[in-house]
Design goal:
This protein is of the alpha/beta class. The protein has two domains: 269 residues, Nucleotidyltransferase, domain 5, CATH 3.30.420.40; 183 residues, 2-Layer Sandwich (Nucleotidyltransferase, domain 5), CATH 3.30.420. The strands form six sheets. The protein has a six-stranded mixed beta sheet. Helix 10 packs across helix 17. The radius of gyration is 21 Å and the shape is globular. The two termini are 20 Å apart.
């Protein structure tokens, strides 16, 4: 029996995890094991929000050490995926300039509004095919242009968050396609940066690296890092689909007439295509054409997902009321339904100080009934998400002419049975839940593809099935 041992880092906006994958090459079976987990989240300093990227790196090194202690030289490769849109800048010595801002930073909304008053939305969308949302990298960079940022002036290299970790792991500088596609300044048809668009808004174009495909071999682990940790210098570093959504969708056992919801902090709701779909109607519906593995396009809408429950849970904990997600779901299942609805896409829910207060204000302003207890509050959120998904799937069917006959829900949110049942009820189709660890599975199997052991997306998904 031939086994591969691979280490996948799945770094999310609320936690980071290190997952070992043991792939039985003869029987095409994968066994996964979480070996390390740590909390993550944006840090407020004044009006701004940042990522503590050095803390994340420190935890990653601890996880690598733990994996090596257990598996020794059987550990053949490491791959990293993270959330999209956020980035860091390197100086001419290859050192990080400052802490990367979080996509939830309030600076982004003003930057987006100002930029779209200067450049027509249609011009941006027809080049990039990316939905309009203030979190996009394009507006984050323009926020730096607006203040004449000294960091931007000093930058020699632009790297997305997973590309930074790949650089620190392997000493290789490159931009992986799926993550780069979230910026809103990459052309998904040619897989190249839109330099003319960047120049028009005052962003230097000589800082952007070569774009590589998911599954690219980046080299062996950095020698200094291997010596620091006391581990083998023979471990390969592979860029999987470094955007977590793309890794998750790669691991989703879906067919052409399936819809999907990749459900975590965000819900990514859409279908899989083999070429971008960019026209006036897709722009009107605000669909995004992000990169996928094996030359696919993840055609979807980005909707705030379990972020609502995370923030409700946090707001309750600040008052001394501590509930598990299972308890919140049970209360919602027992609560009255159809009291009120919120719009999950409303920018006010992106980074509120207190999510419960913000929902109550929204219900006040829209003259809807307020929940009488926590269960009713959570049910409003879950029903609102399911209704939003229905709208997105109806629009996707209108754009493509496809009839969606099944919806696959995967990622951490697929563990919420009430959420899944509401999606089935509201869409009147079969819903299949899982795998809950889709992102890590996709990451690990795309590493195996990068090493030459998996040849196609179909073969990868057969292993998942």
């Amino acid at each position: 029996m031939r086994n591969l041992v691979l280490l996948g880092f799945d770094l999310g906006a609320s936690s980071g995890r290190a997952i070992i994958g043991k792939l039985d090459l003869d029987n095409k079976r994968l066994e996964i094991e979480e070996i390390y987990r740590f909390p993550n989240g944006p840090i407020r300093i004044g009006k701004n929000m940042y990522w503590d990227i050095l803390m994340i790196w420190k935890e990653m090194k601890s996880a690598i050490l733990q994996a090596y202690k257990k598996y020794k030289d059987d550990l053949v490769s490491i791959g990293v995926d993270t959330w999209g849109v956020d980035f860091g800048l390197l100086d001419n010595n290859g050192e990080l300039i400052g802490f990367p801002h979080s996509y939830r930073d309030p600076r982004n909304k003003e930057a987006m509004d100002e930029l779209l008053s200067k450049i027509p939305k249609e011009k941006i969308y027809m080049r990039t095919g990316i939905q309009f949302t203030p979190i996009n990298t394009l507006y984050q960079l323009y926020a730096m242009v607006r203040i004449n940022s000294t960091q931007l002036k000093a930058a020699k290299t632009f790297l997305m968050i997973p590309d930074i970790f790949n650089y620190w792991l392997s000493s290789t500088i490159a931009s992986e396609f799926t993550e780069a596609s979230t910026t809103q300044f990459l052309d998904p048809r040619t897989k190249t940066w839109t330099y003319d668009l960047l120049e028009e808004i005052g962003i230097p174009t000589d800082i952007f690296p070569e774009i590589i495909e998911p599954g690219t071999y980046l080299g062996k682990i950095d020698k200094i890092l291997a010596e620091e940790l006391g581990i083998s210098k023979d471990i390969s570093i592979i860029a999987p689909a470094t955007h977590d959504t793309a890794s998750a969708i790669a691991a989703a056992p879906i067919e052409e007439d399936y819809g999907y919801v990749s459900c975590g902090t965000w819900s990514l709701v859409g279908i899989e295509l083999y070429k971008p779909l960019i026209n006036k109607k897709s722009m009107e519906y605000n669909f995004t054409n992000e990169g996928g593995a094996f030359n696919t396009i993840t055609f979807l809408r980005n909707i705030q997902g379990m972020w609502f429950l995370q923030e409700i849970k946090r707001a309750l904990a600040l008052k001394g009321e501590n509930y598990s997600y299972e308890e919140l779901t049970k209360m919602a299942a027992e609560a009255r339904g159809f009291i009120a609805f919120i719009d999950p896409d409303n920018p006010r829910f992106l980074s509120p100080i207190n999510m419960i207060d913000e929902i109550m204000k929204f219900l006040d302003e829209t003259k809807q009934e307020k929940p009488k207890n926590i269960g009713e509050l959570v049910r409003i959120v879950l029903e609102s998400l399911a209704l939003k998904y229905r709208r997105v799937f109806e629009q996707a069917q209108d754009l493509t002419g496809r009839k969606i006959r099944q919806i696959n829900i995967f990622g951490g949110g697929s563990r919420n049975w009430l959420h899944n049942q509401l999606v089935a009820d509201f869409n009147n189709v079969l819903v299949v839940a899982g795998p809950s660890e889709a992102t890590s599975i996709g990451n690990i199997l795309l590493q195996a593809a990068g090493l030459g052991y998996i040849k196609s997306l179909r073969e990868l998904r057969e292993i998942v099935r």
